Amino acid sequence: MAERQDINGSTNDSCTNLYDHRTTAQLLLPLCYSIVFFVGLFGNTLALHVIRPNLKNLNSTTLYSTNLVVSDIIFALVLPLRILYYAMGFHWPLGEGLCRATSLIFYINTYAGVNFMACLSVDRLVAMVLPLRYSFLRSVRTVRNICIAVWLLVLLQTLPLLSMPMTNQESDGYITCMEYPNFEKVDNLPSLLIAAVILGYGIPVVIIMTCYIVLSWKLHVSARNNQVMEKSRRHKKAIGIICGVTLVFVVCFSPYHIDILQYMTRKLLYKPDCTELQSFQVSLHVTVCLMNLNSCLDPFIYFFACSGYKKRIMRIIKRPVSLSFTSATKSSPDSCSRDPAESTKIQLNTLRRNP
């Protein structure tokens, strides 16, 4: 009980059960992250290859997608170090500097992904519902400035991590890296993390959900007034993409941030004991793994969202490997740079003008 009442103290040093799941984690976490690494690196590299010929015909969707792909590729390149760390049973033999660098890339990828998905959601809303009034938001110059602003915002959110301790020498000789208990001595940690969740996750998720609710409603109303549109492939595809992106976002990002929020709230009310801290530690390893799945699910969104991407990828897969890259780059760009929402947007506008 004294431990619970000491709100400003640290029970971290007295907890010896925080890594009791080490044996199970040595098997499951490397397997999970290996899948994320191979699928994420291959999928995003292929997506970048598909996007590259269309960089001459830039539009807002291509720019946002390119930034998201680059972020995912950088993240995938450092995953082998995390796989090694988990395979060694939460032991980091590579030093504090490299631990900080990989941690920074991890959090940059996380919040770059969240923010660029929010940007894509707003972009979809403007393209399909407000194409004339807010068309300036989809100009190449504006989108480039927005992308720069997003990266600056993400850096401001993550750079404070460089001042925090990332590694910790455990009593059993293991050196942990980027584990929650290593941060427990940071002053006002619960308040800082709650604020980070609200800014880094709460605001973007409200934007994404609002955009897709409005977009789904507009599509539903338009389809109800136009039976041809309701039966069209583009209408069904648009609804499918909205549901898919929302599902991926909720499944990948929500568990981790809700987990952080609930535990930090408890820490503000009382001092959780070692059993609660150990349960939170295990849940973090699960929810972080779920969150990282986002980097290998993004290419599937590109595949279904853009017919141009799908055609080029299918063409590459069907052709011999020795000829696929040369023939693909020499061929004229597909309709990837063309907005997949154009026909739906036109029908929406037509209905608006002709009630």
TrEMBL record:
Q: Which residues are in the G-protein coupled receptors family 1 profile domain? A: 43-302
Under the heading PROSITE patterns, the entry gives: G_PROTEIN_RECEP_F1_2 (PS50262)
> Pfam family example for this protein?
7tm_1
Q: Which residues form the signal peptide?
A: none
Q: What is its main location?
A: membrane
BP-aspect Gene Ontology terms: adaptive immune response
Keyword annotations from UniProtKB, A to Z: Adaptive immunity, Cell membrane, Disulfide bond, G-protein coupled receptor, Immunity, Membrane, Receptor, Transducer, Transmembrane, Transmembrane helix
What's a single GO MF annotation on this record? oxysterol binding
Q: Which GO terms describe its cellular component?
A: plasma membrane
Q: How does it sit in the membrane?
A: Multi-pass membrane protein
Q: Does the keyword Manganese apply?
A: no
Q: Provide the transmembrane region boundaries.
A: 27-51, 63-84, 104-122, 143-162, 192-217, 238-258, 278-305
Question: What protein am I looking at?
Answer: G protein-coupled receptor 183b
Q: Which organism is it from?
A: Paramormyrops kingsleyae
